[in-house]
Specification:
By secondary structure, this protein is α+β, with helices and mostly antiparallel strands. It contains two helices and 14 strands. The strands form three sheets. It has an eight-stranded antiparallel β-barrel. Strands 1-4 form a two-stranded antiparallel ribbon. The protein has a two-stranded antiparallel ribbon with strand order 2-3. Helix 1 packs antiparallel against helix 2. A hairpin with a 4-residue loop joins strand 9 and strand 10. The relative contact order is 0.15. It folds into two domains: 212 residues, no CATH class; 38 residues, no CATH class.
Length: 261
């Protein structure tokens, strides 16, 4: 990882952490008019032998609900994704180091490149008990450069702890050390999600390129598309945060060690 790439990822991580703290702090109280079962009729007083209601007032309770226990399971926002009725809105935070499994015959990428580091941050909303939609910011880094992107996401819940995902998106901000990218690229993945902590994914990246290469006895201009497939495990939610922070620390130490040497 070069010094310039490290600076980019430091800024990206600061943005990620700021968004995490913002979303964790953005919890809204339940409206008494919309959810009367979540509130407790209180403020009763005794005077002599007569029972008098001094006044009727709704007071929020957080230890569930007396009248409707199922409603207590509903969270407006969850850091770790779960289907309804437990979560309406949940966060996406994924980190992975996935190996390359296929690359087309393109001269623009280094054949020795075998792993890609990926970071994703986003939000999804549960439409119902089975389906969720959302989007995420995407960042990737390998030996040949870095790129950023935007991805849409669809999740199909198979149960409380398992789900399938499809996530197509576009690549922008492509920086390749060998050739120049010709516009935006494409990325997408399908994955099996386990408890929102471990995700097995198959991912594709398609990056248009243009450049000049030397082929005896002269140089020639080449254009085409890099098509690369990756497959492996990624970490999600709390595990993704821990893995992502650990990867950044390792990268900082590695760059500092190289500069000292």
């Amino acid at each position: 990882m070069s010094k310039q790439q490290l600076i980019i990822f430091k800024r990206l991580w600061l943005s990620f952490l700021a968004l995490i703290f913002f979303m964790m702090a953005k919890t809204e109280p339940i409206d008494a008019q919309q959810n009367p079962d979540h509130w407790l009729l209180s403020k009763l007083s005794l005077e002599g032998n007569d029972l008098k209601r001094s006044f009727l007032k709704y007071q929020p309770i957080t230890a569930g609900t007396i009248f409707n226990p199922e409603a207590a399971k509903v969270n407006q926002f969850c850091f770790r994704g779960k289907p309804k009725p437990e979560c309406n809105l949940f966060m996406i935070f994924e980190f992975g180091v996935t190996p390359k499994i296929y690359q087309n015959d393109s001269p623009s990428q280094d054949e020795s490149q075998s792993f890609m580091w990926t970071y994703e941050l986003g939000l999804m909303t549960n439409l119902n008990e089975k389906n969720a939609l959302g989007g995420s910011l995407y960042a990737a880094l390998d030996d040949n450069g870095s790129r950023f992107g935007l991805k849409s996401r669809y999740r199909r819940w198979l149960g409380r702890h398992f789900s399938l995902e499809v996530s197509p998106g576009i690549l922008i901000g492509i920086k390749d050390n060998s050739y120049s990218a010709r516009g935006a690229g494409f990325t997408g993945h399908v994955g099996l999600n386990i408890a929102d902590l471990l995700i097995y994914t198959v991912q594709i990246e398609v990056i248009p390129y243009a450049g000049t290469i030397y082929q005896y006895p002269s140089f020639r201009t080449v254009k085409g598309n890099d098509v690369t497939w990756y497959s492996g495990l990624k970490l999600g939610s709390y595990a993704g945060v821990i893995g992502g922070v650990a990867s950044l620390v390792v990268a900082i130490i590695a760059v500092s060690t190289i500069q000292i040497l």
